Amino acid sequence: MTLEAILVIAMFATFGLILLTGFPVAWALAGTAVIYGIAGHVLVADFGANLWFNWGSSVELFPERIWPLVSSPTLVALPMFIFMGIMLDRSGVAERLMKNMVTLFGVVRGGYAVTVIIIGVLLAATTGIIGASVVLLGMLSLPVMLKTGYNKSLAVGTACATGTLGILIPPSIMLVIMADRLARPETSVGDLFLGAVFPGVLLGGLYISYVLILAWVRPNAAPVPKDVPKVTPRVVANALWAAAPTAGLILAVLGSIFMGVATPTEASGVGAAGAMLLAIANRRMSFEVLRDSLYQTTRTSSFIFAIFLGATAFSVVLRNLGGDQVIEEALLGLPFNNYGILATILFVTFLLGFFLDWVEITLIILPLVAPVVEGMGFNLAWFTIMFAVCLQTSFLTPPVGFALFYIKGVCPPEINTIDIYKGVLPYILLQLTGLAAVFFWPGLVTWLPSVAFN
Amino acid sequence: ANTAQAQDSVRWRMPIAFPSTLPGLASPAPWVAKRLNEISDGSIQIRVSEPGKIVPPFDILDAVSDGKVSAGYTWVGYDQGKVPAIPLFAAVPFGMKPWAFMGWYYFDEGHNLVQEVYANAGYNVHAELCGIIGPETAGWYREPIESLDDYKGLKIRFAGLGGRVLEKLGASVTMMPGGELFQALETGTIDATEFSLPIIDQILGFNKVVKYNLFPGWHQQFTAQYMLINKDDWNALGENQRSQIDTACMAATTYALSESEAKNGKVLMEFQDKGVHTAQIPEPVLKELRATTREVMQEEASKNEDFKRVWESQKEFMKQYKVWGERAYLKPEMMLGGEEANN
Amino acid sequence: MSKDDSNESAQGFHIPEGELDFHHHTELPDTAASLALDRTIGSVGKLISWLWLAVVAVILISVISRYVFGQGSIMLEELTWHIYGIAWPIGLAYTLVTDDHVRVDVLHERMALKTQAWIEVIGLIVLLLPFLGLVLYYSLPYAYDSFIRGETSQAPSGLPYRFLLKSIIPLSMVLLAVAVIARISRCTALLFGFPKPRRQTTSVH
Ligand code: NA
Ligand code: NA
């Protein structure tokens, strides 16, 4: 094994061990980066190790790498969506929406979870920032689901997994970067955006089916709220009336994007303003509510940004130690000559997703495998979307599953990390099911762009 | 390699501002890295770091100057906010054709001026022109531009000094990030956008949502990329290594220009097959754009001494170049083979 | 969501009921120093939280002016992320004070309070402080260079004085370091009785 490989494996192992001690995720990442930065420096400077590691191009660059987080027009959406979620929660608007949606589902068990998934799919169409959507869905839905007696894992798994749909369903910064990286007309941003629509909706559908089946098999996991009235036209009308403002808000955010009034980033601000209006209309707005919502927005945004901070330090040190080369060489060592290669690449991507985030994987692997896939005559857009589904799954796979960290940050105390792991497991399997579906029916990806652009 | 050579060999990480997959704009970077490794027999080893892998694109200059990385490859126009005169070396509205710029850079004052401009702004870098490409398109529009009034209230994404020009003409100019452009154009958040060469624009898929691709790219007749090298590292190189770098970069400039000249025509023909109208901005509108550009350039020159000096030098060069340039070349349709192409 | 009423005493500064919704893992005692420092950082964090309203306002003005008055503004677009870029980095320290940085609690919650405190104090000293120190050390020249070079926005009609926003990086590191020192004192108060614990807080759960 090369020195690079040893260092890369050791770096991940160290990070994993620190995580287990319960030290905050963000600072575990940052601290591991510093330790291995120093190690790399000592190895090169004092032991003459044959590494490309360079203190200047790793540790000294921390400020340069933090700056794009500070000056990002796109990430403004993160605190905005979080504020929107907190406001909806604090003002009682969210709970009312959830309750009324459940009334509509009547005696269908699992109604809350289904509602969360539907809201999540809509939300995914407004933002691609996983931190924002996971946190927002968690805040909106966990309290009410737990109060109704939902199984903890089911509740948290649903919110967490649904929150990751945003990176697949357009607008999606991940697909933009993939298009950029591939630099081919057949995988333009437009093609990938449209290609991702059906797979994204399919995953949402799979999630809903799973919840309904589970609730039917194990009624205790997703009980019907006790006070649900019989479904009469009047009840339906009342429910729709009561749910209208919040649904309207979500649709207004979506609509402002699709009508071209606002960019996705601006739409997040529009949503935040809308949530305040709803709270006022609902007579739940007060100075205290506003103040507390703002305070909590800061704390929630900051714990996510802290993870970004740690992760950016971690990755620059990892790359300097030769992380890219190690993974590239491992990948090139695979048997690249039979039809199963596609499955192999996707499986490896899925496995890497346990440890690396999507940016790393996209930067390292996509340009490497694209020519291979193309050379075998496969449709590259189709492959890229499958690749994207794998990366969406990486948010859910421990130990480095960012959606798991985000949801943990807003969980009520009775939910612990193990509950979250248990909760997302079925959804990881559903992701793989969705992946298989796209694998066997490429039309799911290729059909929409072919009709839309002709 | 013998021991003496091995001691002198350098290992540089070279961050780039665009993915190396982008033709002309960034494809010369890996090419130059590979060539340098080969022609120096391993005494110059360069590893290209894709955008953001090590250094975020907008900080390449600082990172090189501070010696955090030894080299970087970027479109230096990004540093307009730090070095006001630098756009003149990166892309100039109503500026020179690529080969005229190369003439000014290599045989007139360009190469020396860029070193001075960086030094005066407090940067410790050596710059080598290391890639140049032809004109960008004037952008993608829902409707063609027929008069100056069409710019009034037009919601357009337009970077650089050209953006200032359009702002003066009443356009609503934004700088939204590249990743939001497709969606914004599709939903009408913006009416128009410019980005780069046709071959690069097609990757963003603009042709799929709006049908007017306007020319000429008045705002960016040439687009130049540079290899920036930390000055201490540059000075520490051996004479032969320095020649290897400047030779490789000169070759990369040819490489980039050839690639952009070779590939864009085909893409434009494909656009036309897909119903894209490649329209020209009318001459009178262009003249107005030029008049406004002149104002903007004068404002910049009055704010910054180096800007003024470089701008004067370029204007001086253009005076003599015009005599040659307007007489010497055939229009492409006059060339054999050119006349068969339908426009 | 559950209410964690212990926070008022745990944090040492007034937190109204319902404000803190998060689970707090490590119930450390306060010290005189930590009370004062935490209170200060808490006030700063709360103050900057109001900036989110400003972000909402600027976005609305920007959208309205583009759609109603047909006039977009690069300056407003940049103002949005300038305000945002002040708020979250400052919030990092506030979030540390309220102990809202996410942990993996698989083993952590089964540990004795003293073990947790040991992990916390070692982690803060070995992992976090060196990181803060390095970022601070390298971000000071980063911001200072921006100042002496008079860096402005790269957009021709964008905002000037970029060094102000760049200074947020070292500033946030200093605030974080202060929060870390306060927290270390709370750990050592529990482990060694030094500095003198002010109150032993108890979990209400
Ligand atoms: Na999305
Ligand atoms: Na993962």
UniProtKB/TrEMBL annotation, chain A:
GO cellular component: plasma membrane
Keyword line: Cell inner membrane, Cell membrane, Membrane, Transmembrane, Transmembrane helix
InterPro entries: DctM, TRAP_DctM
Localization in the cell: Cell inner membrane
Transmembrane region(s): 6-27, 34-53, 65-88, 100-123, 129-146, 153-177, 197-217, 238-259, 265-282, 303-321, 341-368, 380-407, 427-448
Bilayer topology term: Multi-pass membrane protein
Major subcellular site: membrane
Segments forming a coiled coil: none
Any one GO MF annotation of this record: transmembrane transporter activity
Domain TRAP C4-dicarboxylate transport system permease DctM subunit: 13-443
NCBIfam families (UniProt xref): dctM
Name of the protein in its database record: C4-dicarboxylate TRAP transporter large permease protein DctM
Organism this protein belongs to: wastewater metagenome
TrEMBL record, chain C:
TM annotation in the entry: 47-69, 81-97, 117-140, 160-182
Membrane topology of the entry: Multi-pass membrane protein
Coiled-coil regions, chain positions: none
Keywords for this protein: Cell inner membrane, Cell membrane, Membrane, Transmembrane, Transmembrane helix, Transport
Segments forming domain Tripartite ATP-independent periplasmic transporters DctQ component: 56-187
Compartment(s): Cell inner membrane
GO CC, alphabetical: plasma membrane
Protein name, UniProt field: Tripartite ATP-independent periplasmic transporters DctQ component domain-containing protein
